[in-house]
Amino acid sequence: MPKHSTGGLISVQKRWALMILLCIALSTTIAFFIGSSANSCNSADYGKFSSRIDAVEPESSGGNKKGENPLHFMNSKLVLMVSHELSLSGGPLLLMELAFLLRAVGTRIVWITNQKPTEPDEVIHSLEQRMADRGVKVSPAKGQEAVDTALKADLVILNTAVAGKWLDAVLKDNVPRVLPKVLWWIHEMRGHYFNLEYVKHLPFVAGAMIDSHTTADYWKNRTHERLGIKMPATYVVHLGNSKDLMDVAEDSVARRVLREHIRESLGVQKDDLLFAIINSVSRGKGQDLFLKSFYEALQLIQEKKLHVPPVYAVIVGIDVNSKTKFETELRNFVADKKIMQRVRFVNKTLNVAPYLASIDVLVQNSQARGECFGRITIEAMAFQLPVLGTAAGGTMEIVVNGTTGWLHPAGKDGLTPLAANIVQLAMQVETRTRMGNKGYARVQEMFLEHHMSYRISLVLKEVLRKANS
Ligand SMILES: *[C@@H]1O[C@H](CO)[C@@H](O)[C@H](O)[C@H]1NC(C)=O
Ligand SMILES: *[C@@H]1O[C@H](CO)[C@@H](O)[C@H](O)[C@H]1NC(C)=O
Ligand SMILES: *[C@@H]1O[C@H](CO)[C@@H](O)[C@H](O)[C@H]1NC(C)=O
């Protein structure tokens, strides 16, 4: 996403600059991908339970009036951020986003990347450059300087479970002195993270911050049942859309130009209906099941001679650098069922806005426990798209069933319901519009950057208070 200063109205000049940047981004060969968190939440087992979490209410209104930054109290505080790695995946990018939000209120930030490849890496270099430009100090992961910073910092933010390895390896005897000011931000729930090697210090930190209630419940349960450890105070913080994304979503000219451009590149007509999954292509994200539902929907439309515009399935997230068995399976299915002309495969991209501008319905088909949060869902809602999502994970906390989209069960049980939902939305333009508008209103109400800032500010205040007591 191109970085742009924002402010009320975007001038015509700025708008064109934005458009040009977007088009450059479109033609770039960099095949990376953000959108929804790249950290998968899937694993074989699935558990349902309820347990109390000391949650910051995600519905809290945001509270702040325009102009008042809820993070203001972080001015001149020193924060050490420890990222398990530096890449264009969801976890590190979110931490970077928080670093920039805090820089904007004058927080001093030191950034440490725990695991780095030994060879020079272009992505790491450019991300570090970007941080340096914004006044984030990038420091070595090990050594006395890292220890001193940790001891001096007002707050230490560990990002993802794996970052826990940094504590003993670097701080050694100082671990107990640092733990009371650690906020641990967790974005994943795959089984192998429930490992004492990573999380044995988790009970003793000031707090854990987790992207959805479902994920927080899962952590609470798993740490208890599997590892016999107790979660610290746990805060659920739903994410928000960046201002950059909202700028494009709310600019009707930008949206129209992008829509025309992408539709032309996909070879579809103005009135064709595009149902898309925008996610890395993997079984956990459910592209295979989506295509099966889509095929079922096409058959229904044909059998019942339903009067609907031509419908297309778009899969955004192909990795050109590693052709997987799963991708081959998807392509074979499409060839076997002879629906090639109705399906489009698109490369992974960092820049999801052009695709959101060009599609009509987002399908969020993540399987098993679903997404931890699923940022692409709120991004799609910003573009006034209805969402057809699995009733799992963070999606259930974002999509209001029947209002901003429809939920279907994960797994094979969801095939026919999803097919029926696709047909319904294809037939009912008013439903699509109504759900899209309701989704947008929900984003305005709770999924903007300032909402996220506010929610995070409550957690940071709490953690600072504990660290100083
Ligand atoms: C935790 O999950 C397991 C299944 O994975 C379930 O049997 C158990 O009852 C859950 N425990 C709590 C406290 O919710
Ligand atoms: C995907 O990337 C490959 C390799 O860079 C390129 O040849 C191909 O045209 C791209 N496809 C699309 C649909 O952008
Ligand atoms: C969603 O709502 C539909 C009716 O609008 C209902 O049939 C379906 O069971 C609901 N799904 C969930 C997961 O609540």
Write a brief caption for the model.
The protein is α/β, with parallel strands linked by helices and 469 residues long. The protein has helices at residues 12-27, 90-103, 122-133, 144-152, 165-171, 175-178, 196-199, 213-227, 243-249, 252-266, 287-303, 325-336, 353-358, 375-382, 395-398, 415-427, 429-446, 449-468, and strands spanning 78-83, 108-113, 137-139, 155-159, 182-186, 207-210, 234-236, 273-278, 311-318, 343-347, 361-364, 387-390, 405-408. It contains 18 helices and 13 strands.
Describe what this molecule looks like in 3D.
The chain crosses the membrane at residues 16-35. Residues 260-441 form the Glycosyl transferase family domain. InterPro entries: Glyco_trans_1, Glyco_trans_4_5. This is Glycosyl transferase family 1 domain-containing protein. One of its GO terms (molecular function) is glycosyltransferase activity. The chain is an alpha/beta fold. It has two domains: 49-240 and 449-468, 3-Layer(aba) Sandwich (Rossmann fold); 266-446, Rossmann fold (3-Layer(aba) Sandwich), CATH 3.40.50. It is built from 18 helices and 13 strands. The chain has helices spanning 12-27, 90-103, 122-133, 144-152, 165-171, 175-178, 196-199, 213-227, 243-249, 252-266, 287-303, 325-336, 353-358, 375-382, 395-398, 415-427, 429-446, 449-468; strands at residues 78-83, 108-113, 137-139, 155-159, 182-186, 207-210, 234-236, 273-278, 311-318, 343-347, 361-364, 387-390, 405-408. The strands form two sheets. The protein has a seven-stranded parallel β-sheet, sandwiched between helices. A six-stranded parallel β-sheet has the order 10-9-8-11-12-13, with helices on both faces. Strand 2 (108-113), helix 3 and strand 3 (137-139) form a beta-alpha-beta unit. Helix 11 packs parallel to helix 12. It is elongated, with a radius of gyration of 22 Å. It starts with 11 loop residues before the first helix and ends with a helix. The structure holds 2-acetamido-2-deoxy-beta-D-glucopyranose (3 copies). One 2-acetamido-2-deoxy-beta-D-glucopyranose (NAG) is lined by residues 391, 401-402, 406-407. One 2-acetamido-2-deoxy-beta-D-glucopyranose (NAG) binds at residues 391, 401-402, 406-407.
